[in-house]
Amino acid sequence: MYQALIRPILFRFDPESVHHFTFNFLKISLKLPFARSITRHFFSVSHPSLEREVFGLRFPNPVGLAAGFDKNAELVDELACLGFGFIEIGTVTPRPQPGNEQPRLFRLPADKGLINRMGFNNKGAGPAAARLRQRKSGVLIGGNIGKNKVTPNENAADDYLACFHDLKDTVDYFVVNVSSPNTPNLRALQEKEPLTQLLLRLQQENLRQAAPKPILLKIAPDLTDSQLDDIVDIVRETGIAGVIATNTTISRENLHTPKSRIDAIGAGGLSGKPVTSRSTEVIRYLHQKSGGAFPIIGVGGIHSPEDALEKLKAGASLIQVYTGFIYEGPAQARRICRYLIDNQQ
């Protein structure tokens, strides 16, 4: 029903406007009597084979919602009704920022992809933490953190630490985002020396806490094998909990969308089916190179249950969806979970 009827209607309108409409629809509709319990009954799947224990946390199933969909932690309870095993909020920054100018979100239907240059638009880490304190569901929450656009890279660690302190009592794990292509010079922080120093500072502060939280690193799919080797070394040296592979790509290779349309859209990170293969390659490389020494959350181009299983077989411990959720609809987590049960993965 979603793909045949609802999606064609939604795709007639501006993507960011549809995103806000969907948010408001979920907020209003799930306030109706029994709406949440009915939705959970329809979309949630429970089975012992789905449960995972990863970096010290118990996940009811391995299918999560990636950062970017609920940046400001405004819809956690509602999204938890759709069967996700965990939800990642953010990317949040210490201070609110509007992000880049609109339009900044573009669909590529011929490729089942999206291009975005949102630019870490968010209301700030502190307000997100305040909303998380009011949540009612027990779904596991990841906090994806970044730096403000105006903060120079040499002071980036201060921004990540500020987000850490704002969120540390309200999230279950952290994700350090240095791989978005939409904040100027942010990806320079993926280089070995600055990234090592940034993660060491965060991890040192984390270990001072009474209850340290797992810290993960989100990386780009555009890294070379040599850079991926550096990532393995960095995880080992800093003692962080794992890696999320991968963020969006700056590549525009092998697209079905006309080049004129791609050129007109311009800069931004590409997600969805065009990154399926590359993200799986990165997962497999990291898993094999490290000997499975750390968990990997696989994300990038997961549309079908088969895509999900491929990521897990490549070495991912958990997976996340975002663009696939937009294209495939609200029952995506349920379909993946049922497929994993049938295939005992």
Automatic annotation (TrEMBL):
Keyword ATP-binding in annotation: no
Known pathway: Pyrimidine metabolism; UMP biosynthesis via de novo pathway; orotate from (S)-dihydroorotate (quinone route): step 1/1
CDD domains assigned: DHOD_2_like (cd04738)
Alphabetized Gene3D superfamilies for the sequence: Aldolase class I
EC number: 1.3.5.2
Lipid bilayer topology: Peripheral membrane protein
Domain Dihydroorotate dehydrogenase catalytic residues, every copy: 50-341
SUPFAM superfamilies given in the database record: FMN-linked oxidoreductases
Coiled-coil ranges from the UniProt annotation: none
Catalytic activity field: (S)-dihydroorotate + a quinone = orotate + a quinol
Keywords recorded for this protein, A-Z: Cell membrane, Flavoprotein, FMN, Membrane, Oxidoreductase, Pyrimidine biosynthesis
Cofactor: FMN
Location in the cell: Cell membrane; Membrane
A cellular component annotation (GO) from this entry: cytoplasm
GO annotation terms (biological process): 'de novo' pyrimidine nucleobase biosynthetic process; 'de novo' UMP biosynthetic process
Active site (UniProt): S180
Positions bound to FMN: A67, G68, F69, D70, K71, T91, N144, N177, K218, T246, G272, G301, Y322, T323
Cofactor note text: Binds 1 FMN per subunit.
GO MF annotations in UniProt: dihydroorotate dehydrogenase (quinone) activity
One protein family per Pfam: DHO_dh
Main subcellular location of this protein, as a coarse class: membrane
Function description: Catalyzes the conversion of dihydroorotate to orotate with quinone as electron acceptor.
NCBIfam families: PRK05286.1-2, PRK05286.2-1, PRK05286.2-5, pyrD_sub2
Family in the record: Belongs to the dihydroorotate dehydrogenase family. Type 2 subfamily.
Subunit (UniProt): Monomer.
Protein name as it appears in the record: Dihydroorotate dehydrogenase (quinone)
